[in-house]
Amino acid sequence: MRNSWADSVENVATDNVGPSGGNAASASTRRSSYVPPHLRNKPTAAEPLAPSQGGPPSGNDRSGFNGPTSGSRWGGSRPDYGRQGGYSGGSRSGGGWGGRGGGWSREREVNPFGNDADVDLEQSFDQENTGINFDAYEDIPVETSGQNVPPPVNTFAEIDLGEAVNLNIRRCKYVKPTPVQRYAIPISLAGRDLMACAQTGSGKTAAFCFPIISGIMRGNFPQRPRGVRTVFPLALILSPTRELSMQIHEEAKKFSYQTGVRVVVAYGGAPINQQLRELERGVDILVATPGRLVDLLERAKVSLQMIRYLALDEADRMLDMGFEPQIRRIVEQMDMPPPGERQTMLFSATFPKEIQRLASDFLANYIFLAVGRVGSSTDLIVQRVEFVHDGDKRSHLMDLLHAQMANGIHGKHALTLVFVETKKGADALEHWLCINGFPATAIHGDRTQQEREQALRTFKRGDTPILVATDVAARGLDIPHVSHVINFDLPNDIDDYVHRIGRTGRAGNTGLATAFFNEGNLSMAKPLADLMQEANQEVPEWLTRYASRSYGGRNRRTGGGRFGGRDFRRDSSYNRSGGGVNYYDGGNNSGGYGNHSGGYGPGVTSAWD
Ligand SMILES: Nc1ncnc2c1ncn2[C@@H]1O[C@H](COP(=O)(O)OP(=O)(O)OP(=O)(O)O)[C@@H](O)[C@H]1O
Fold first, then answer.
1. Could you tell me which residues belong to the region Disordered (predicted)?
2. Is the Cβ–Cβ distance between 572 and 559 less than 8 Å?
3. Residue 558 in this model has a pLDDT that exceeds 50
């Protein structure tokens, strides 16, 4: 069923052809005092500096899109790999802790904001943001549990992220933190491990990036070994797909611009040599897909022994069957410091309880945070479900697309994402749409990396405003102007549905999701009806009837609460009394969230925004 995911794992794994290298731990024996990025190269009388970092003083003008040039399948050929549109050398205006940074030759740091970098820097955080409907998030219920939960903040100004990061937040035009950021950033800045669940499109990337960048800037880490061909990142961000890793890398580069913190990405399907060159120039934060990282670890090109921050984005997917062995290998069987010695952050919009249980192996005395119910979809997305027999799906799709055009909902500001089950199905539907006059492209695990990136690029630009995709595009991708997600084939798992429809209705914007349902999807009837009802959607009567017959499909939302949307540690079956930590008795509830306990039992902090 999850072909495309397995394939994506497989594809990454096929890159793991390097010889087994020795464990890099042996390379690191010398330790002297660490020079934080903001102080690198900075002469100071008061405190003698350790020798500067070992990365050769070379340029930083890399691109996250490292593949060779390829022609467009849609006539939009543009040899722009390696050149992010509009990127130019950035201004060298100060910023940074201590006013400068850059052990990695920041004078050549590419400006990730293009020409926008220095606009509105005078703008303060309390000005209105454009385009983001923050009111949409105001009444989202928030639950936190764990010991001594730090209180949330209301503004970025309340968080001590440092001037350089604050400037970048303004450059991103973020005016105030989203709810998950309000809670997660103070928790992470306090050094706590975190399992965070928040709805799609609600700003989780920044929620884990800001504390990592800030922590590296102010941290006092041991000097990393120099003169060896192994690199020692301080932070590792893992994500399940190449495109998502590239996106996180792009975001993290914006957030860390002119901080001296260097972010590098490594993913499969792209030439490893170019990624190795980037790594050798120095890396503080490594963003990676698991397969390529294992390859780099086996070649002893990367050591994890200096990791202080570990973030798993789409953490439930990372610990699902396809990825779990690789993740365990990376986190538990290489040279990464154990929980407690590193800070671990797990983020997703969905967190089934069995995965929460697995995930707890990676965490130490963690805080659980749920913004909205675990696995719920945002009511910014209007959900529709239509009964369509398999044989009628294409003509039904065409009716929908024609109706969109008739209503002026098409073009580059109204992109349509169509999810199908199989790679073959994606190719076939793309072809059929194209011969019927709808400019479409497709993305799936059998396409080359170049083709995948090209498909995303032409879709984002609106050259092909219809993208047919397997689940490889279901998670994390933040594509502006996706106004309609169509589940041509429904997934078999409600959480996958939540992620798929979450490609629209992001950052406070509204969106539309249409699902084609038929007898082949009976196991989805109940979870789908429940989810729609919870999100205040109109549930068709026929779907309610199917749901009431309960076909016993896989529904992860079992146990406790309507959707079981809470910390699994509160389940009675979870018993750590045998000498373990009781997370709920005597927990110091931070209060101050409106003092709403939410009825989750003693010791559990709950909050309502
Ligand atoms: N504080 C903020 N103010 C305005 N926009 C923001 C803010 N934080 C994040 N965004 C924007 O919101 C969008 C969604 O953010 P992001 O991709 O991090 O969501 P997410 O929660 O990780 O979604 P998903 O669950 O699909 O991975 C992005 O375009 C991001 O730039």
1. 1-118, 551-571
2. no
3. no
Cα first-last separation, the chain:
38
Tell me which residues have their CB closer than 6 angstroms to ligand 1. 129, 132, 174, 177-178, 181, 198, 200-206, 349, 476, 478, 502, 506-507
d(CA 239, CA 506): 19
Q: Are strands 367-371 and 235-238 parallel, antiparallel or unpaired?
A: unpaired
- C-alpha 204 – ligand 1 centre gap (Å): 6
Strand order in the sheet with 141-145: 263-266, 285-288, 235-238, 309-313, 343-348, 194-198, 367-371, 141-145, 606-608
Q: Is the dihedral of CA 273, 276, 278, 280 positive or negative?
A: negative
Identify the residue whose C-alpha is closest to ligand 1 atom 4: 174
Name the residue of 178, 185, 239, 377 whose CB sits within 8 Å of the most ligand 1 atoms, as the mutation to test its pocket: 178
How far apart are alpha carbons 264 and 283 in whole angstroms? 6
Nearest Cα to Cα of residue 455 among 17, 12, 73: 73
Whole-angstrom distance, CA of residue 390 vs CA of residue 387: 10
Q: Each residue of 577-597: pLDDT tens digit? A: 433 344 443 333 333 222 222
pLDDT (tens digit, 9 = 90+) per residue, 207-230? 999 999 999 999 888 888 877 889
Residue from 127, 154, 169, 174 to probe ligand 1 pocket by mutation (most atoms less than 8 Å from CB): 174
pTM tops 0.80: no
Ligand 1: centre distance to CA 202 (Å): 5
Distance, C-alpha 532 to centroid of its chain = 24
Tokens of residue 568, six digits: 């699994």
Q: Are 499 and 313 in contact (CB under 8 A)?
A: no
